[in-house]
Write a sequence for this structure.
C-alpha cells in the first residue's frame, strides 16, 4: 500500500481523462435512459392506445435475442452514420433497455388506480401525476436501474473497444488494460492494482449512498386494506 | 350550486367476449340536487352508488345522459376542471407525502387566477386540518396513521380547495362507532358552514337518515325512491325501501285482503275501504305494535330485550316471512310474556301493504 503507487497509476494511465470520459458516458446515458424508461413504462402502464399489448409483447420478445448478435450490425450502422470515436456511439445504442421498461412498468402497475383518480380530482395532468406520484413511489426501482446502468457504463469493454478506442474517448476498462500491458507485456501489478482500486471507488460510493433507498422502499399504506 | 342528473346511465361492457352480460351499474337516473344540500345516496353493495359518484366527478363517462352543475353542462368536462372534492372509499392518500403535503397537493395544482402563494396555501391547509382535528399529525406519513385519521386527512384534502361540490364515498366506513357518530356530525357541520352541495354515499341507512337533507335509495342501478329521510321512512314506495330503512328492520308478513279486511294468518288486523281482494305482503314497523290484551294479532313470545327507554319484544308468528317478529314498546308497559300469546293492535300509519309480485306499495284508506 504505497501512496506512490496510486500517484503512478493515476499518471501512467492518464486516469483523469479516462475518468472524465467514463463519467460523461455513464451519467448522460443513465439520465437519458431513465427518462426514456420512465416515459415508456408510463405509456405501457397508464395510457390506453391501440395495440398496446401487442407492442409490449413485441418489445419483450426482443429480449430473447442475445446482445452479441447485435454487435456486428450495430457496428456497421454506427460506422455508416460516421459515429465512430464519439460519445454518441457510446451512449445512444444502449439507451433503451426493454428489461428496465418491463421492471418499471410492473412497478407502476402496482400503484393503486385510486391514486390516479385522486390526483385527477386534485387537478393534476397525466405528466404531473407521473412526476409527483408515480416516480416517487417507484424510487427503489429507479435507483436499482440507476445503479445497474452506471455499472454497465463503468464495466463496458467490448463495444467501446470496437467503436471508440481513441485517446479522447477511451473508457476506463480499456484504459486500464492498455496502460499497463501495452509496452513490455510485463505487468506492474502493484500499480495496476492501485489503479483498479481507484477505479472501483466511485462505483462503490454510488452503491453506499443509494443503499439506504434500495433497502427502505416506500410504504404503500395510503390505501385501506 | 345545484347538480342536475338527466337520464344518467352507465353500462359496463362484459369482459367476457362469449357472454354478452353487460352490467347496468346505473340505470336512467334523474334527479336535481338542490344547491347547498346534503344528499345521502343509499343502497346495498353493488347497487351503483360509487359509479354514480364517479360520473358526477367525471372519473367515469356516462354511457348516456347528461350532468349539469348549475346551468353548465359538465358531461364532457374532465375531472380536473370540475372543481370537485372527492373522498374515496379507501382514502387514496399519497403514501410518499406527509399529511401536510397531502392536504397541500390540490392547492399546488391550482392554475391561473386561482393560483395561491405559499403562505396562503399553508394557512388554508392548516384550517382544513383543524376542521377535522388532525393539526397534530401534519408531519406524519399516511402509513403512520390509524384508519380513522387517514379518513380525516382524506376529508381535509377534499375540502381544502373549497370545492363547488363535495362527494363522499362511504367516508365513515372505517371508524369505530363513537368516532363515526362524531365524524358524521362534523361532516354535517362543515357542510352547513361551507354550504357546499354534498353527495354522501353510504350503505348504512341510519347514517344517511341522520345527516341528509334528502336521501336517494338505489337498488341494482335503479333509483327506488327520493325524498326527505322521514318521508321515505314513513311512506316507502315499495317493499325494498321499506325493508332497507329502519333499525330494527320492518317486520314482513304474508297476508291477504278479503272483503276489505287484512288478514295476517288467521288474524284480521285491519279493515280497508278501497283495496280489492288479493294476496299481499304486509310490513309493520317495530314501533307500530300496541300491546293490547284484546288485540287481533297473536304472536308467540320468545324473549324480551330491554334497550333502556324502550323494550323490544321478540316473538314468532306463522305468517311472518322473517324468523322473528320484533316489536318496540314503551318500557312503561308492564310486560308479561308468560302466557301462550302476546296480543297486539297495530297503528295504521305504521303498516304498509305491497303487491305480492311487484312488491309495489298498495295505498289504502282505513275504514
Ligand atoms: N369498471 C367496472 N367494470 C365492470 N363492472 C363494474 C365496474 N365498476 C363497477 N362495476 C359493477 O357495477 C355495479 C355497481 O358498482 P358500484 O361500485 O357503483 O357499487 P356500490 O354501490 O358503490 O357498492 P359498494 O357499496 O360495495 O361500494 C357492480 O355490480 C359492479 O360489479
Ligand atoms: Mg362503492
Amino acid at each position: 500500500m504505497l501512496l506512490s503507487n496510486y500517484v503512478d497509476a493515476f499518471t501512467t494511465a492518464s486516469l483523469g481523462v479516462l475518468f472524465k470520459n467514463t463519467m460523461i458516458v455513464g451519467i448522460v446515458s443513465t439520465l437519458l435512459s431513465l427518462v426514456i424508461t420512465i416515459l415508456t413504462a408510463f405509456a405501457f402502464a397508464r395510457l390506453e392506445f391501440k395495440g398496446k399489448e401487442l407492442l409490449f409483447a413485441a418489445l419483450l420478445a426482443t429480449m430473447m435475442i442475445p446482445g452479441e448478435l447485435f454487435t456486428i450490425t450495430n457496428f456497421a450502422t454506427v460506422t455508416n452514420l460516421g459515429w465512430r470515436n464519439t460519445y454518441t456511439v457510446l451512449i445512444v445504442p444502449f439507451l433503451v433497455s426493454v428489461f428496465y421498461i418491463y421492471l418499471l412498468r410492473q412497478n407502476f402497475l402496482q400503484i393503486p388506480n385510486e391514486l390516479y383518480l385522486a390526483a385527477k380530482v386534485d387537478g393534476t395532468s397525466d405528466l404531473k401525476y407521473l412526476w409527483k406520484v408515480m416516480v416517487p413511489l417507484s424510487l427503489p426501482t429507479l435507483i436499482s436501474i440507476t445503479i445497474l446502468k452506471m455499472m454497465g457504463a463503468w464495466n463496458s469493454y467490448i463495444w467501446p473497444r470496437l467503436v471508440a478506442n481513441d485517446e479522447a474517448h477511451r473508457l476506463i476498462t480499456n484504459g486500464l488494460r492498455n496502460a499497463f500491458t501495452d509496452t513490455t507485456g510485463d505487468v506492474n501489478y502493484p500499480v495496476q492494482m492501485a489503479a483498479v482500486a481507484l477505479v472501483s471507488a466511485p462505483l462503490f460510493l454510488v452503491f453506499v449512498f443509494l443503499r439506504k433507498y434500495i433497502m427502505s422502499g416506500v410504504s404503500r399504506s395510503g390505501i385501506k386494506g | 350550486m345545484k347538480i342536475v342528473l338527466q337520464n344518467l346511465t352507465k353500462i359496463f361492457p362484459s369482459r367476457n367476449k362469449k357472454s354478452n352480460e353487460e352490467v347496468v351499474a346505473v340505470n336512467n337516473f334523474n334527479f336535481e340536487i338542490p344547491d347547498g344540500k346534503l344528499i345521502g345516496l343509499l343502497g346495498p353493495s353493488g347497487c351503483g352508488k360509487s359509479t354514480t359518484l364517479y360520473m358526477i366527478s367525471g372519473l367515469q363517462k356516462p354511457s348516456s345522459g347528461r350532468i349539469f352543475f348549475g346551468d353548465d353542462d359538465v358531461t364532457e368536462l374532465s375531472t380536473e376542471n370540475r372543481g370537485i372534492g372527492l373522498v374515496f372509499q379507501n382514502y387514496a392518500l399519497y403514501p410518499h407525502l406527509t399529511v401536510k403535503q397531502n392536504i397541500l397537493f390540490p392547492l399546488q395544482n391550482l392554475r391561473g387566477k386561482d393560483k395561491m402563494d405559499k403562505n396562503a396555501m399553508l394557512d388554508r391547509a392548516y384550517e382544513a386540518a383543524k376542521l377535522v382535528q388532525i393539526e397534530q399529525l401534519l408531519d406524519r406519513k399516511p402509513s403512520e396513521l390509524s384508519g380513522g385519521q387517514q379518513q380525516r386527512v382524506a376529508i381535509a384534502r377534499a375540502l381544502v380547495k373549497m370545492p363547488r361540490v363535495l362527494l363522499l364515498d362511504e367516508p365513515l366506513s372505517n371508524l369505530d362507532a363513537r368516532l363515526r357518530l362524531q365524524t358524521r356530525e362534523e361532516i354535517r357541520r362543515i357542510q352547513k358552514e361551507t354550504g357546499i352541495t354534498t353527495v354522501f354515499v353510504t350503505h348504512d341507512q341510519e347514517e344517511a337518515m341522520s345527516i341528509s337533507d334528502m336521501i336517494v335509495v338505489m337498488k341494482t342501478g335503479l333509483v327506488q325512491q327520493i325524498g326527505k329521510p322521514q318521508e321515505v321512512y314513513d311512506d316507502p314506495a315499495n317493499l325494498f325501501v321499506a325493508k332497507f330503512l329502519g333499525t330494527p328492520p320492518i317486520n314482513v308478513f304474508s297476508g291477504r285482503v278479503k272483503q276489505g279486511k287484512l288478514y295476517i294468518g288467521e288474524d284480521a288486523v285491519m279493515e280497508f275501504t278501497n283495496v280489492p281482494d288479493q294476496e299481499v305482503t304486509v310490513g309493520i314497523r317495530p314501533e307500530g305494535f300496541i300491546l293490547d290484551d284484546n288485540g287481533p294479532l297473536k304472536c308467540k313470545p320468545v324473549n324480551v330485550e330491554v334497550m333502556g327507554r324502550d323494550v323490544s319484544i321478540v316473538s314468532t308468528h306463522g305468517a311472518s316471512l322473517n324468523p322473528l317478529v320484533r316489536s318496540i314498546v314503551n318500557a312503561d308497559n308492564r310486560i308479561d310474556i308468560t302466557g301462550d300469546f302476546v296480543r297486539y293492535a297495530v297503528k295504521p300509519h305504521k303498516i304498509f301493504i305491497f303487491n305480492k309480485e311487484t312488491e309495489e306499495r298498495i295505498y289504502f284508506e282505513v275504514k
In short: Chain B touches chain A at residues 54, 57-59, 78-80, 84-86, 88-96, 105-106, 109-111, 141-143, 147, 150, 157-158, 161, 174 (CB under 8 Å). Chain B has a mean pLDDT of 90.
